[in-house]
Amino acid sequence: MRNLNGIRLHHYKKSKDLATVELPLPKTVVIPMLQHMGVGCTPLVQAGDTVKVGQLIGDSEDAFSVPVHSSVAGTVTAVQDYVASSGKTEKQVVIEVADTQETIDANPHPVSDQKSLVEAARLSGLSGLGGAGFPTHVKLNYKDIDRVDTLVINGAECEPYITSDYREMLEAPDDIIGGVKEVMRCLNIANATIGIEDNKPDAIKLLREKAGSDHIHVVSLKSVYPQGAEKVMIYHATGRVIEEGEIPADKGVIVLNISTVSHLYRFIKTGMPLTHKRLTVDGNYVEKPCNVRVPIGTSIEYVLDFAGVDKNRADKILMGGPMMGVAVYDVNTPVIKNNNAILVLQEKDKKFKASRSASTLSPAVTDGTGDPKDAAKGPASTVVGKVLAPPVTACIRCGKCVYVCPVELMPAALEKAYDKKNVEALKKGKVNLCINCGCCSYICPAHRNLAQKNQLAKDMLKKMKN
Q: How far does CA 65 lie from the centroid of its chain?
């Protein structure tokens, strides 16, 4: 089986050997009612209410919603509007943290079949912790579950800098394997494959030792971006191809992030919902990177202060990795469930050579064609201060975007079709297969916004369909 295309990135995994530390409690947390892909919750508390750690503070009857729990004990000081990343107005709950932290009376939540597993996943407040934020209970509630014969656990952390999932593998391997076994048992899935990149040999060895079963396979995958993308992971772990319009379960596969399955197991054993998230704090401006366990709703500013980072001198702050992360426009932005890293980036090289990706990539990484030391050491564009992105020039028809695309699209042709609003050409070029990895924009010598145009094209087709 051949490997799918992609790019080799210099990873700068400076925090990989740093055990997770506990963040001291902030004075205030701000907990959004929408922290996942789907429908936001209605607040169940109001100003003046006291809450405990793990208490349900937001819920919805919508099937595509995930409950929200308090990460701290304290007093609700406000329930207010905010503008979510989707552009919609949602609610958020502001809590003043108490000196004494009281926790809910939680009890184990045993599971025995698909129905009870789906219920546990929902009650736990879980949405995909790898970054996508897809409601876990929806994924596990596939109606034709008998068609699913393989569980794939995504342990590929293919973005530069981030090591939060890697630390989960080293610090909670029993929870990971326990979660895998519970999902297999409840869904009657015969086999599981845990895919981990080959730059994490100690994690591979440890999980192989812990698995202790012929039905749970830990496989070593090449460290090539975007190895962690769902379709890429499925292909390299099972050889199965997810076609346009299909979901993984249609091909007999369910995929869970490694931290997601680990937390699901902890909820089953303790009944304590998701209230904290492990973050990697790193970047070319961070002198002392760390992995830190953070109460959900804590401001990015507070986390950076703990890490000793002067955010006022940063050229760019990202939530997530430099390839697919989201630029932070306000350091008061709260940490939410699907955040896995805060990266702080600064231009350090006057011979700066920028590059674009899905998140206006920091070129502190390299595509493997040159020495990482020669790569630019700053962000492609800035949130604070000047804009560093290079000018867009005409396509030179080099074909690099086609060569690196893991799903074998023709990004330059799709860009042309989008600019001309050629719907038929976009459909023929299968733009909906794009996984938004940003490889095409990253590699383009003309700095064209290929990945961004693909997302705009998909949105245009969706609106026309509706």
A: 18
75 in Cβ contact with 95 (< 8 Å)? yes
Distance CA 112, CA 107 (A): 16
Compute the Cα dihedral for 11, 17, 23, 29 and give only its sign: positive
Print the SS3 string covering the chain. CCCCCCECCCCCCCCCCCCCEECCCCCEEEEECCCCCCECCEECCCCCCEECECCEEEECCCCCECCEECCCCEEEEEEEEEECCCCCEEEEEEEEECCCCCECCCCCCCCCCHHHHHHHHHHCCCECCCCCCCEHHHHHCCCCHHHCCEEEEEECCCCCCCCHHHHHHHHCHHHHHHHHHHHHHHHCCCEEEEEEECCCHHHHHHHHHHHCCCCEEEEEECCCECCCCHHHHHHHHHCCCCCCCCCHHHHCEEEEEHHHHHHHHHHHHHCCCCCEEEEEEECCCCCCCEEEEEECCCEHHHHHHHCCCCHHHCCEEEECCCCCCEECCCCCCECCCCCCEEEEECCCCCCCCCCCCCCCCCCCCCCCCCCHHHCCCCCCCCCCCCCCCCCCCCCCCCCHHHHHCCCCCCHHHHHHHHHCCCHHHHHHCCHHHCCCCCHHHHHCCCCCCHHHHHHHHHHHHHHHHC
pLDDT digits 0-9 by tens, 98-154: 999 999 999 999 999 999 999 999 999 999 888 778 999 999 999 999 999 999 999
Pair of tokens at residue 24: 């001291």
Task: Return d(Cα 184, Cα 265) in angstroms, integer.
Answer: 12
Distances (CA, A) of 191 to 174, 237, 326, 372: 18, 12, 35, 39
- Which residue in this structure is represented by tokens 């552009």? 87
Single pTM value for the model: 0.90
> Does the pLDDT at position 168 exceed 70?
yes
What pLDDT does 431 receive?
Answer: 96
Predicted confidence (pLDDT) per residue in 191-213, tens digit: 999 999 999 999 999 999 999 87
% of the chain with per-residue pLDDT over 70: 90
The phi and psi torsions of 50 (rounded to 5 degrees) equal -100, 145
How many other C-beta atoms can be found within 10 angstroms of the C-beta atom of residue 384?
Answer: 15
- Give the number of residues written for the chain: 466
CA-based R_g, the chain, Å? 22
Handedness of CA 245, 249, 255, 260 (dihedral sign): positive
How many whole angstroms separate alpha carbon 177 and alpha carbon 194?
Answer: 10
Question: In Å, what is the CA distance from 153 to each residue of 21, 254, 320, 447?
Answer: 25, 8, 20, 34
